[in-house]
Write a structure and sequence with these properties.
Length: 180
């Protein structure tokens, strides 16, 4: 077994180990929090405002170039609304938004876990799964859409970086689309 940080190292066999099962339990609990409570959520003034802007985008009433101030302090870039509008194209409900963001959060966490396991082995991957998205963060990002996107994109970028540094196929935007 070579050093886990060395080039081309292989740390652990591909078989499932106890650490993998613990990581899967953590990810399943996060998934339950993210997807199981789509109809019981905190829906604050910020989410109402963002939902209205995204609804106007989907209906063609407005195409935002900036956002109104959130919490009276800062603006989100317009890309946030375009991402927020994606689930509204399928179902024009706030539950669809919560489910979409929760699913993206969960898929990005699983993608990062798989890439960490491939790069460093099952124990570091289990630790990442256990501490990268603690339960309070999972609960918060369930209702904090912009925080959910931040963590989700961070997971996806980490997974892409690890895949690229280990010489595996490169991934575009963490979605598993292979670039030749």
């Amino acid at each position: 077994m070579e050093c886990p940080l060395g080039p081309g190292s292989r740390v652990a066999p591909r078989s499932l180990q106890t650490a993998d099962l613990v990581a899967v339990v953590f990810l399943a609990v996060y998934g339950f929090f993210q997807l199981g409570y789509a109809d019981v959520t905190i829906y604050s003034i910020d989410q109402i405002l963002a939902f209205d802007v995204a609804s106007d985008l989907v209906s063609g009433k407005a195409f935002p170039r900036a956002s109104p101030l959130f919490s009276g302090a800062y603006s989100m870039p317009p890309g946030f609304y375009y991402i927020l509008a994606l689930p509204l194209l399928i179902s024009h409900t706030k539950e669809a938004v919560f489910f979409f963001f929760g699913a993206f959060f969960l898929l990005s966490a699983v993608f990062a876990w798989v890439q960490i396991r491939r790069s460093f082995g099952p124990i570091p991957a289990m630790l990442y799964a256990a501490i990268s998205s603690p339960f309070f963060v999972s609960l918060y990002t369930h209702t904090g859409w912009n925080a959910s996107l931040t963590i989700s994109f961070s997971n996806a970028l980490l997974g892409c970086f690890l895949a690229a540094t280990q010489g595996r196929k490169r991934y575009w935007a963490g979605h598993g689309v292979q670039v030749q």
